[in-house]
Amino acid sequence: MGAMRPEILHPLFAAHTSLPGIGPRFAKLLEAATGGPRIVDLLWHLPTGIIDRRAAPPIAAIEPGMLVTVTVRVEAHVPGRNRRQPYKVTVSDESGRMSLVFFHARPDYLERALPVGELRVVSGKAERFGAGLQMTHPDHIGSLEEIERLRAIEPTYPLTAGLSQTVVSKALSTALDRLPVLTEWHDRALMARESWLPWQDAVRSVHRPTSEADLLPTTAARRRIGYDELLANQLALLIVRGRSRGRSGRSIKGDGTLRRKIEAALPYTLTGAQRRSLAEIVADMEQPTRMLRLLQGDVGSGKTIVALLAMLSAVEAGAQAALMAPTEILARQHMVTISKLAVPAGVRVELLTGRDKGRARENLLERLKNGEVDVLIGTHALFQEGVEFKDLALAVVDEQHRFGVHQRLALTEQKAAVDVLVMSATPIPRTLTLTVYGDMDVSRLDEKPPGRRVIDTRTVSLARVDEVIAAVGRKLQQGERVYWVCPLVSESEVLDAAAAEERFHHLQERFGHRVGLAHGKLKAAERDVVMERFKSGEVSLLVATTVIEVGVDVPEATLMVIEHAERFGLAQLHQLRGRVGRGGTESACLLLYAPPLGEAAKARLSILRETDDGFRIAEEDLRLRGAGEILGTKQSGMPQFRVADLAAHADLLPVARDDAQAFLAQDPELKSERGNALRTLLYLFERDAAITLMRSG
Ligand code: ADP
Ligand code: MG
User: Fold this and answer.
1) Closest ligand 1 atom number to CA of residue 303
2) Which of 688, 643, 697 is nearest to 669 (CA)?
3) Could you give the CA distance from residue 242 to residue 227 in angstroms, rounded to a whole number?
4) Where does ligand 1 bind, in terms of residues with CB under 6 Å?
5) Which end of the chain, N or C, is surrounded by fewer C-beta atoms within 10 Å?
6) pLDDT digits (tens, 9 = 90+) for 315-354
7) Beta strands, E only, 431-507
8) What is d(CA 596, CA 492) in angstroms, rounded to the nearest whole number?
């Protein structure tokens, strides 16, 4: 895909090492600090502070602690007498004298930078030393001509260990000098209304703040580049969606016989939200266009039965349906639940996973092709080569945030006109649904089935971990099952796994072979085995990282312990908690925190004690943490925004959606001049998968 990137963007996608002064060592540090190895990553690395170097008093007027830029004459070099003594350079102006101090100095460099008898500009923090004044390691040393540049306001950037502001600033300054001039992709009227600068000027401007206020996400320059990203995102989503929508679909209309049979056999009645969602889905399926609908519902809100009834309306119409789960264990779980309900009604349900091989698989594929299978359940193996349906009408995708955009594309690329229903248990705040799913149609299960027990949720200090372990012991004694979730230490699965392993060994000493371990470093198949053993009861205490977040159903699990709960997002804690309380037994969730817990963290955790409404929790999480944090972590499975700030730029979201929609309606192939510029924008924000899609159609 990279090969198709417009040439004008090449300099922006060059490696950090293409900048002068950046060798492999600094490049590595820059990559760590900016989140990527290329110059664009540096451009999106925004300043978070400023240093004001404008003060330029005479030496006599300098107060210790002041940051100053002074013009001085170099008087003498005084090398240290041994390695531990610093190298000093005395300098003066008409009013007084001070020393510049260097540890581990390179004398040849200092002699060149500060020749005796000459005037120089030095900038840095002054300190008192005995009766005198000194400046240790000035931040800048320059000639008189450079005073304007040095007596300035300098941005400061988030760093990593080993990286200095100077290195980042220098790298950025070259990068900003090399910015290409890009054809404007925004609507002129919008530019005028918002007083936005051209792209390259806006990028320079965000990196050259002249006051604290310039650092805010609400400046015109920040809003402009934020809007660039939001627009790229909306365009990409709409292109993907337009592809699946625009394709002629077909009207699927069942006669209701299977649905009535199954509903009558249910031990419960559907909730109002389930009925409403089902009606929306069925109405979409009856339309001659393709459906792309999201069924959003908290853990336990009863999405499965809604999906099943939708699939049955396809079967009633004489077609087939498929249900794709993100893991094998979830696929098996669906198989059990669904066949229990559907098989007695005469529906032919089968399971296909990556594990199926040989004759059995051949046989299943044969029957699928002949239309002897009505509902096929499985993992992504469902959409691999060789799997041919006789007449697939509806594909349901469960727990969609575990699937990447690419799988989503693969689905929309099915050659037959397949309706797609995506199910997600991630309670995304209303304001953010748009950024994640574009304007996919949404059905929400915002009502829980009746009779759910409240999960007793408590916060407990980690200092009391021994009492918690004792409580775990009591649960195990009673034949119940317990989850122990270990914290997200970092974005690194290696570190997370290490923390989980340590806790696992610790608990194993106490509870022996009853303890199992599941984390992201294990192969999916190995993890499935551990999960199966936990389901069957061979393992009764499962130590895990957040890999268990996805909807595995173990009704015997009654206690959820979450270590370092303060490090998790609320929505994530809520999803984890939803793993218990699925059977009839009283269940509890213990949120272990490392003391002392700050006020904000306390407030966050107490929301979980107050409510078990996932949507409310998601809204509160958004309010307390800001959208950046919710969407920013890899864990969340949400799109990553580099410069858009969803809290500060929220008003621009609907603008981006309308803008993208209106534009695509008039130039769906992005062929006009603005269309071309928008293609460049898609590449700039690496949403170019959407372009590939357009080309292939
Ligand atoms: P999720 O939305 O997390 O996928 P499930 O579909 O697994 O939820 O449903 C959770 C449980 O609730 C299942 O045991 C299911 O049988 C039950 N359930 C679903 N709908 C209802 C309802 N209307 N009344 C009572 N129980 C229900
Ligand atoms: Mg589910």
Assistant:
1) 2
2) 697
3) 21
4) 268, 270-271, 274, 297, 299-305, 425, 449, 551
5) N
6) 999 999 999 988 888 899 899 999 999 999 999 999 998 8
7) 441-445, 456-461, 481-485
8) 25
